Amino acid sequence: MTRPPDEWAVVSGSTHREPAGSGPGEGELGERGPGESRLGESYLGEGGPGEGRPVESRDAPRRVVLASRNDAKLVELRRILAVAGLAVELVALPDGPDVPETGATFAENALIKARDAARVTGLPAVADDSGLAVDALGGMPGVLSARWSGLLPGAGRAERDAANNALVLAQLADVPEERRGAAFVCAAAVVTPDGAEQVVHGQMCGRLVRVPRGDGGFGYDPLFLPDGQNRTSAELSPAEKDAISHRGRAFGQLAGVLRELLAI
């Protein structure tokens, strides 16, 4: 079974507690899709980011901000948390400047993003840092997965995904089938405005195909063939993917953490 490098292969369900605000964070870039919630003045209150506090009715679902501007990820995580039966309204990070992901591990980067989102919005924040660990590349691209091709964040997401996929395929061009093992790894973090923090982990093992297949998902999904499947992640239905994916496993656990931290 594929295992990422030791600093990424963390036991699922472990916790990580550090002082809030100990590092910078970076939200992900993405275009606003139709019907997607955004944080605005009604969420932040008066006085600018971080000064006002969200006002929620007693019967409304608790608002939790996702530290990402990736609309595809927002839709995916709303779906995962709904299946888990969690009564929260997951909203996207408001527009604003990005701060760098400087962590050496997925867990560090997830905390960087969640801390920053909680600070800016005054809401409980969740974030993930996920990536592809390829055996033949020594566990890379790893935490560099989203920017493996070197394209700048100003490039469109579809353009960056295509460039990242093309580079990985080129790097594995001469690698035989038996050495094309890989794993998707996810660290999911929650940070509350009062500084409580927790991180959980999920992993999906498989191998990489030679030609992209499927139109679903995003990132490296068209290249990744999960163990026990004859379809890539991009060929699976959303429900099929959520049931086995690294992100589905991590956020399935995080739902329980949110219930405890938010008393819902």
Structural write-up:
The protein is of the alpha/beta class. It has a single domain, classed as Maf protein (Alpha-Beta Complex), CATH 3.90.950. It has helices at 41-44, 71-83, 106-121, 157-171, 238-244, 246-262; strands at 62-66, 88-92, 125-134, 181-191, 197-208, 224-226. The chain has a six-stranded mixed sheet with strand order 2-1-3-4-5-6. The protein is globular, with a radius of gyration of 18 Å. The N and C termini lie far apart (37 Å). The model is unreliable at 3-58 (pLDDT under 50).
Features:
single chain, 264 residues, alpha/beta, Maf protein, 6 strands, globular, disordered N terminus
Tell me briefly what this model is.
This protein is of the alpha/beta class.
Compile the SSE list and pairings:
Layout: H1 41-44, E1 62-66, H2 71-83, E2 88-92, H3 106-121, E3 125-134, H4 157-171, E4 181-191, E5 197-208, E6 224-226, H5 238-244, H6 246-262
Parallel strand pairs: 1-2, 1-3
Antiparallel strand pairs: 3-4, 4-5, 5-6
- The figure for the number of domains is 1
Q: What is the CATH class name?
A: Alpha Beta
Helix content: 25-40%
- Roughly how many Å apart are the termini? 37 Å
User: Which architecture would the CATH scheme give at its second level?
Assistant: Alpha-Beta Complex
Catalytic activity: ITP + H2O = IMP + diphosphate + H(+); dITP + H2O = dIMP + diphosphate + H(+); XTP + H2O = XMP + diphosphate + H(+)
EC number: 3.6.1.66
Keywords: Hydrolase, Magnesium, Metal-binding, Nucleotide metabolism, Nucleotide-binding
Family: Belongs to the HAM1 NTPase family.
